[in-house]
Write the structure tokens for this entry.
Amino acid sequence: MTDYKIAPSILSADFARLGEEVDNVLAAGADIVHFDVMDNHYVPNLTIGPLVCEALRKHGVTADIDVHMMVKPVDRIIPDFAKAGATYITFHPEASEHVDRSLQLIRDHGCKSGLVFNPATPLSHLDYVMDKIDMILIMSVNPGFGGQSFIPAALDKLRACRQLIDASGRDIRLEIDGGVKADNIREIAAAGADTFVAGSGIFGNAQASDPHHYDTIIGQMREELAKA
């Protein structure tokens, strides 16, 4: 049985009550808190930094926090997120002058490391660094904004990446981010993903009648994954 993980992207949460939102989505059955860091440089948007990550830890969040850094350069901010409580830190190879060094820096600070691949970024960046990778994130939208539609070509990329992971024999999670919803999550899982980032697909489907607001939508996703 594949160990599927659901990772709500707090980019789509209500930031005025972020701690409560994270508590609710985890209580509803989510596994990982996905944390989108944008710098208005590498991507055309500005979001959140280490202080918010630290605030969630101080609030009492004990679940894994998956920090997706859409920033350039990356090395300067890695230690700050490690200190703030990140579990995973992933970055885009285009944003680092020395990918191997950046991956090792993440691990040296006690976090799990990973690379993120934009829709047009080739998987060849994985050559020679698979031994330093704990997670590979395939973007199924172009980074920078939430609420975009899933790019179908990401399915072929997932299949190719799954083959690389299986051939390596390493314990590497394969994450997908962008346009993930209850009605396509089964197809995405069949292509090889085991970790699913969903922003508007979860936070946009809150139900006041649910005990934790998101029980129904996460339940629907679990049902679809069980059929994959």
